[in-house]
Write a structure and sequence with these properties.
The complex is a heterotetramer, with two copies of chain A and two copies of chain C. In chain A, 33% of the residues lie in helices and 17% in strands. Chain A contains 16 helices and 14 strands. Chain C has eight helices and 15 strands. Chains in contact: A-B, A-C, A-D, B-C, B-D, C-D. At the A-D interface, helix 3, helix 4, helix 5, strand 1 and strand 2 of A face strand 1, strand 4, helix 2, strand 5 and helix 4 of D. The complex binds siroheme (4 copies) and iron/sulfur cluster (8 copies).
Amino acid sequence: MADISKTADRTVKEGLTGSETPYMDELCKGPWPSHARELKRTQYPVMMYEEGIKQRWTQWGHGGMSSVPGLGSGAIARKSRRPDIISHSHLIRVLGNPGTFYKTSTFRKICELTERYGDGSLHMLTTNYNIEICGIMNDEQMKAVTQELNAMGYDVGSAGDAMRNMPDCMGPALCEYAVMDTPRLKHFMTKHFIDDIQYPRFPFKIKTKMAGCPNDCGKALLHGDIGIIGVFRDLPKINDRRLSDWVNRGGDIRWVCDNCPTNAMNWDGKKLTIDGDSCIRCMYCINRVPAIKPGDDRGVAITAGGKMKGKYGPMKGKVIFPFIKVTPPDYKELVAAYTRICDVYDDNGRKKERIGDMIQRIGMDKFLELCGVEPSPMNFTSPRRNTFYHWEHEELGGVHE
Amino acid sequence: MADISKTADRTVKEGLTGSETPYMDELCKGPWPSHARELKRTQYPVMMYEEGIKQRWTQWGHGGMSSVPGLGSGAIARKSRRPDIISHSHLIRVLGNPGTFYKTSTFRKICELTERYGDGSLHMLTTNYNIEICGIMNDEQMKAVTQELNAMGYDVGSAGDAMRNMPDCMGPALCEYAVMDTPRLKHFMTKHFIDDIQYPRFPFKIKTKMAGCPNDCGKALLHGDIGIIGVFRDLPKINDRRLSDWVNRGGDIRWVCDNCPTNAMNWDGKKLTIDGDSCIRCMYCINRVPAIKPGDDRGVAITAGGKMKGKYGPMKGKVIFPFIKVTPPDYKELVAAYTRICDVYDDNGRKKERIGDMIQRIGMDKFLELCGVEPSPMNFTSPRRNTFYHWEHEELGGVHE
Amino acid sequence: MSKVGGVGVPPVEENIPQVVLKNYGKWDTHEVVRPGVIKRIAESGDVCYTVRIAMPPSRVSVASMLELCDLADEYSGGFFRITLRNSFEFVDVNPDKIEELIDKVESLGFPVGGTKNSVHNIMACPGWIHCNLPATDSPGIAKALGDALIDEFKNHRLPAWLKINIGGCANIEEALMADIGIIGVHRDIPIVLEDKMRICEQPTVIHSCPTGAIKPKGKESVVISAERCIHCGACTMHCESILTGDPKLDGFAVSVGGKASNTGSGPDLGRVVIPYLPNNPPKWEEAVNAVTMIMHAWRKDARPDERIKEWIHRIGWDRFFKKAGIKVSIKDVDGYMYGNEFARSDLRFGW
Amino acid sequence: MSKVGGVGVPPVEENIPQVVLKNYGKWDTHEVVRPGVIKRIAESGDVCYTVRIAMPPSRVSVASMLELCDLADEYSGGFFRITLRNSFEFVDVNPDKIEELIDKVESLGFPVGGTKNSVHNIMACPGWIHCNLPATDSPGIAKALGDALIDEFKNHRLPAWLKINIGGCANIEEALMADIGIIGVHRDIPIVLEDKMRICEQPTVIHSCPTGAIKPKGKESVVISAERCIHCGACTMHCESILTGDPKLDGFAVSVGGKASNTGSGPDLGRVVIPYLPNNPPKWEEAVNAVTMIMHAWRKDARPDERIKEWIHRIGWDRFFKKAGIKVSIKDVDGYMYGNEFARSDLRFGW
Ligand code: SRM
Ligand code: SRM
Ligand code: SRM
Ligand code: SRM
Ligand code: SF4
Ligand code: SF4
Ligand code: SF4
Ligand code: SF4
Ligand code: SF4
Ligand code: SF4
Ligand code: SF4
Ligand code: SF4
């Protein structure tokens, strides 16, 4: 192994020491943790960044998804526009842990690999919650890192037109609001779909994001190509005794009632009631009052189409399956719904077209039909405004033949 | 004149008497005023309607804008698909009066003309608030009717790709809420733009609708290609003494406060205050409480793009000029703004493209620029979500040359 | 030939009674003294009574108008208005004569009412009376609804007012702007009269179609693709040789929640909640049932002063469909190529 | 060659402390005992303390991570988390040792805080550190903002929490999802390296452009139309021979009002309120001023528990621009060919 790491043909040491880095030196000052300082503690070619700042233009060149030997995905290749400093510098994406919990014993091994094969800098974490091991110079190193990670029970992937890492929130591991077991679902989904995560085969990337409740700490609805979010259908549960204790200890229940978005809460001075005709399960009262808990009729909503760029610009996800029961160990219903969305995308998406743009192009009605969804108001903010329907042959009873 | 009326080559009397009209006879029953009964009291070819009901399909054929001899517009021509009943039947659109007020002395003349040249049936009023004199058979009759109307001070127009009749609300004539004199504006605009109303020259129709206040009885914002609606900028005026009288007489001010859409009203049991940071001049409190009146800083908002069909489907109007002072007798500012919108449409609209569809196509920002509007939040419900800007050469300081 | 047009409209002053001219812009308040009768009080203390009646949909005979003119001469100094909902209003009626006028005008067949929290006059386009595009007969439906709702027209018993507009086709006219709207829908694609085709200008027709559903067929005719056609009627409007409509397939959709004013949740067009009901003249049971069903659900559940749009705004569409007893169908989901704006992007469900 | 991949991720149980495993799914409530320190109480009565620190934007050295590991070994049994905002959290810290841990970790340069009503950890993409698309340097801006806002990170003095995300280009990453976002904007059209062009596949590049701004130029090269280009960078992403960026013209935009949760007015992406500010490293004054200006206006005017989105929802955009002291420009009006959705259709003005 050792030799492989040696094969790294890094740039002239001078460049690295960063002796001439006035801009970065400036960025090392101040109370906030400094990436400049961090980079200086590594073998990262600091002159690439220093020059970028000086010229106000990145010095890096073309790049993007590249594959770890033996895998379809897992790395980002990056050329340099400054061969005088460095020729290139790749990175590997290590799939984030369930609940993004780590323990030092294994994590130290990741550090060691980063030192041995990379330039000693890490990306902790990416906004899709992978660890990136940076500064890897060649295929052998990529393969070696991956295999050592595999040996530890870790894995890579999440680049290119594949399923990406499926970030989750800590959920029931630490959070009282969780109505769904995000970390375990993440573990299951990653294993179940590992091939699609490591071998790109879709029109474009599919980012799946999860959150344990409608607070959506995973921002799954906003930017998940597919979002899986814990929801409950019955009303929030109120523990009356506990509530009055809380109020007596100074809890301002009136204030909470005022902030209920649909004025569903009514506090008569003694008892709190929630109007089933108004409550929209927004989580607010639950977030504010320990005596109020999520209901018991629990499942997940599955959204699709969130993304930030693409033809039609930034888009929130749209509700496809408003309620699916979560049934470990095989998560049958959930896997079926999820797979259905991916298949519809696979069959109908154009090259480099995100799910959201595809829905925009083919129409939400068509997409729901393809997904086999029995439509409900949970699928729309309002019914349509135009009468520009398409009538299927059956609906016309074949009359127009 | 008499002869002209005789030239009407109406269909065989049998058809007209409606002896065989079981469907229409059914429609003559019941408490609601019956169009069937009305038609039977005229020379309208009732078998056309009876057959339509029987076959569940209109018996009328191609039609649309047609012109009164000597004018570009003013009539709707209509062919029949049932020459056995009647060959055709045209109608003339008489521009509605300011405030749609009528007096019998002149109106009886209109009735007489309808008897003499038409089939004795009227459309009172169309949804664009014209009177239609129906059942006119030829050009001579159209011309004769028009000239007799002109002699009375009445006029025709409002068909085809012209400016249409400019309906208004009764406004100050009868309404306490009016912040703008709609009937007088209607009178002025009609005279000022009479050529554009009678000689089609635009890409498609331009419907201008007016209302005296934000209650918008004219539905000007919803369906005016151009809407002119009275607005005020300062806060609603409260007459304290009168308010307490009203409250003492049982007026439920708390209820009104609860229904203020922005919770801007605060009633402390004695005094009512309106929070200038929240009030959106929605009219609700004014509508409900006689002691609250519109503010004094008055003008009109001009909207554009409302319509019901066209490529992009039903669309509400969009705010172009949020506030324009109303300055009779020449209404300078208003006419300038209005004309600007029409010119921009004239220059940029495609054939048969409504203003709303044009705005959708060229972009709201471009449209505002072309109209010379200094943009404000009154022009949008929210700023844009994407950063997909177009940068003008000036903005780039010519650097990229 | 002698000049035609160029005249404009008569001045305001010509058609309004003295009291209106005197107090023009100085009206202070109003009371609806009984359904259909509005008393307007001016700052000067002067009052002006108006009496409102329903009008027959789309067409009225000169004979009837002359009868109304006679009454106007007798009771309102010859002055009247046609309102923005095409109600007929006697303007400036002597209060002592109001009951008398009401009796006479109702005996002529014109019910008095349609103010405030009532069903207001029903607006409808000519439909089968005179148009070539209708998918349904607006006046027939208006009449059927008016007969069914007459008591609500004559009373102030609803939570707020209820306005019903009817348009015979996708041109829609007023429908989407009303609390409840009825819109004619064609379901089959238009029929191309091949033989007549050469009278129309091929490029114009093709251009007239918003979705590009019309493709040239040889030099002289065109074909329409059922996949792309949205049944808007534009081609029929612009070309003599294309016929729209099919007696067996035409019908209408029902919309709710239109509102123009800026109060409450503000102005908006209605939304289509029932995509299709069959044409069934002359009684139009389906239309009457749909409207009364929605009206009753609203009436039962709405707060005072809460129009249908505001009611739905409060309870959400989730619950509207339940309460109104309307089944949600895929047709409620906007999938029009230029629509697509109503897909849901939140989890704020009202189960 | 030996097998690679196919492994997945380690099981949950492997990386969580005993107390977490034992009370998994049985947490009852939590208190933020001080900024950065959350005490979680389980139904069983067990407690679990977490200590949260800010992390350097985008890159951290193995050296630093090992120092943090040492502390984790000493104070949290070797367990830690990286949160969804990339904060580092020591999990299950002995309460008596918390102050000690805080001293040590802060002396290493990692401030403790970022919980509740504070500025939370700042998210930024690699920008000039490693990407080829950036119009601005996200990490540099993040650092400048962090230095300026450190006191708000360490205290709970804001009306609600304030989350700031930074993306170097139109790909945007997180920016639009934060209370305040910074988004790199390119203003000039991409540069086509004619000579290199033949290495890329012409059709693919042309196809990659969402607005069809790229037209073929002969067989081997392409031209980009300034009228159509929206500076999204897709072409540069997909073609080696097209360079994006211009040191003199690149800069960034500022957005406000992103929020993910379903509370209040519900989830939504932010809106761009400042279309362009120049890149000005290493102090980034313009960015710091814009963010602090918005933060102060919000802080001064917002009600307790009211995030920026909810604040704007209450006062309206009309007043937001006034209060924040931002001049409205035509660039705020969405005119993107596929956008156009925000034109105003009501008269509910807040003058
Ligand atoms: C006469 C008329 C204006 C005209 O020039 O013809 C009129 C007259 C009045 N309108 Fe209107 N509105 C008239 C059509 C409309 C329309 C258009 C329509 O109905 O198609 C609208 C907009 C559509 C809508 O309803 O949204 C309209 C929205 C209003 C509103 C706003 C209601 C709301 O939802 O907030 C008010 C204020 C109110 O009612 O409190 C209002 C208030 C009034 C007042 C009270 C104004 C006043 O002080 O006189 C008048 C009596 C209302 C009544 O009928 O009880 N008027 N009003 C129209 C009578 C139509 C009819 O025959 O029924
Ligand atoms: C009479 C009237 C309906 C009524 O009962 O009031 C009417 C009748 C016709 N309309 Fe309309 N429209 C009438 C108001 C409307 C409205 C309502 C309004 O004006 O606010 C609309 C919806 C608002 C709008 O303009 O978008 C309306 C949208 C249309 C359209 C759709 C235009 C488009 O944007 O595509 C057409 C088709 C066209 O013009 O190409 C149309 C075409 C027609 C034609 C001319 C179709 C035809 O030629 O077969 C209809 C003639 C019927 C006849 O022979 O009696 N009518 N039409 C109204 C006359 C208004 C006037 O006095 O000028
Ligand atoms: C640790 C973390 C989840 C994780 O698996 O990593 C987390 C943890 C908690 N979140 Fe969260 N949220 C976390 C990221 C988010 C995000 C994502 C983000 O910030 O990019 C969101 C959605 C984005 C947003 O803010 O809209 C998020 C939206 C919420 C909300 C909804 C807030 C609202 O506007 O209604 C709550 C409920 C609340 O705060 O009352 C919440 C509540 C909580 C609670 C109180 C849940 C609990 O009982 O422990 C946790 C402590 C909050 C705190 O930091 O004071 N969490 N939370 C994340 C910490 C990020 C950080 O380092 O600061
Ligand atoms: C590392 C990371 C930024 C970070 O600081 O976290 C990142 C880095 C890059 N993104 Fe990203 N994206 C990252 C999260 C995101 C996100 C946020 C998220 O995942 O929620 C988004 C917005 C959400 C979304 O997906 O729409 C995002 C939208 C993009 C896009 C736009 C895709 C599109 O729809 O057009 C591109 C361009 C592309 O893929 O063609 C892109 C492309 C890139 C590339 C690969 C561009 C390139 O090759 O030059 C960047 C590599 C930078 C480098 O060499 O270090 N990145 N990228 C994130 C890695 C996530 C991961 O672990 O997989
Ligand atoms: S999303 Fe819900 S369950 Fe997950 S961490 Fe946030 S609040 Fe807890
Ligand atoms: S969950 Fe939300 S909507 Fe339901 S009662 Fe609580 S605060 Fe109100
Ligand atoms: S729009 Fe306003 S001014 Fe005109 S009638 Fe209606 S309420 Fe009166
Ligand atoms: S005008 Fe409307 S927003 Fe303003 S105080 Fe009155 S009710 Fe409230
Ligand atoms: S709505 Fe349709 S059917 Fe009715 S008049 Fe207008 S065009 Fe004709
Ligand atoms: S009805 Fe409309 S959509 Fe269908 S072909 Fe004709 S114009 Fe095109
Ligand atoms: S946001 Fe843009 S600049 Fe930042 S990493 Fe992603 S692609 Fe690169
Ligand atoms: S930057 Fe985007 S819009 Fe401009 S040419 Fe490249 S791909 Fe097209």
